[in-house]
Automatic annotation (TrEMBL):
Domain of life: Bacteria
Pfam families tied to this protein: LytTR
Organism: Nibrella viscosa
Gene3D superfamilies named in the record: LytTr DNA-binding domain
Protein name: HTH LytTR-type domain-containing protein
Domain HTH LytTR-type: 37-131
PANTHER family reported for this sequence: STAGE 0 SPORULATION PROTEIN A HOMOLOG (PTHR37299:SF1), TRANSCRIPTIONAL REGULATOR-RELATED (PTHR37299)
Length: 148
């Protein structure tokens, strides 16, 4: 696979500062008979499974909620969370690399997940990544590390 775009990884300490900059609040998720607040910046990606959405967090934990991925997408900040195809939304704060191989684009995330990007969404995705990284570079005090 060929590396498509130089990406910059946020250090762990920079995540909270970026979350403050983008005014990321906690996300209230429904559970059996109650609701629970989860820090939005800790979400690495969301994976749609029918009428359910599986959350993958930066500590390796996962959580399933009974809301569709489409419904969850409306509750997330568009500049940070990007829908790559019909089953996955990723948090750009955890993007490590973007690779391209024979018309298939794949992103690597900080938790080790590899997610394919649909051909239809590829150009929009690259533009969103560039805009996000430009805004991150403009923040003072957050060192960025170029991914290998």
């Amino acid at each position: 696979m060929e590396k498509l775009l130089n990406t910059y990884v946020l250090p762990a300490g920079g995540l909270e500062e970026v979350a403050r900059h983008f005014q990321m609040s906690d996300l209230t998720l429904p559970f059996w008979g109650y609701r629970k607040k989860m820090p939005m910046y800790q979400i690495v990606r969301l994976e749609g499974e029918g009428n359910y959405t599986r959350f993958h967090f930066n500590d390796g934990s996962e959580l399933m909620v009974s809301l569709t991925l489409k419904k969850m997408e409306t509750r997330l900040p568009a500049g940070l969370f990007v829908r790559l195809h019909k089953k996955n939304i990723v948090n750009l704060m955890y993007l490590e690399d973007i690779q391209y191989d024979q018309q298939q684009m794949t992103v690597g995330l900080a938790n080790g997940d590899q997610v394919d990007v649909s051909r239809r969404k590829a150009n929009q995705f690259i533009k969103q990544v560039q805009d996000f990284q430009q805004e991150i570079r403009s923040l003072n005090g957050i060192p960025l590390v170029a991914s290998a």
